[in-house]
Amino acid sequence: MIKLLHVEDDADIREIALMALELSGDFDVVQCETGEVALKQVQSYTPDVILLDMMMPGMTGRQTLEKMREMDSLRDVPAIFMTARAQHNEIEELRDLGAADVISKPFDPIALADQVKAAMQGA
């Protein structure tokens, strides 16, 4: 099973992503509604991949990933951003930050598991 940490403030998107990922049968998903909660969660849960919303109240996805990258256990874990505002220059900035991929919202639930796996292989 692939351990995936999903950080997303929108409950509906969390639910859709959870169903999509669990349907594939390949993922053990832990979800957090904020970057702050995610940073607490990773003290006891080391994911194989991180799926981060870009725009969240409090810490953004970018800030959350920057904090996670300071932790030895998460330094090399592939991170994938999900955003509704994926401009080309922003995508390049996120890749420079170490993002394995950027998935645009609205995302295709049917394709989500395969997109995550493909990003992990490319990381």
TrEMBL record:
Pfam family, one: Response_reg
Domain Response regulatory, residue spans: 3-120
Organism: Sulfitobacter dubius
Sites bearing 4-aspartylphosphate, chain numbering: D53
UniProt keywords, alphabetically: Phosphoprotein
Cross-referenced SMART domains: REC
Protein name: Phosphate regulon transcriptional regulatory protein PhoB
PROSITE patterns listed in its UniProt record: RESPONSE_REGULATORY (PS50110)
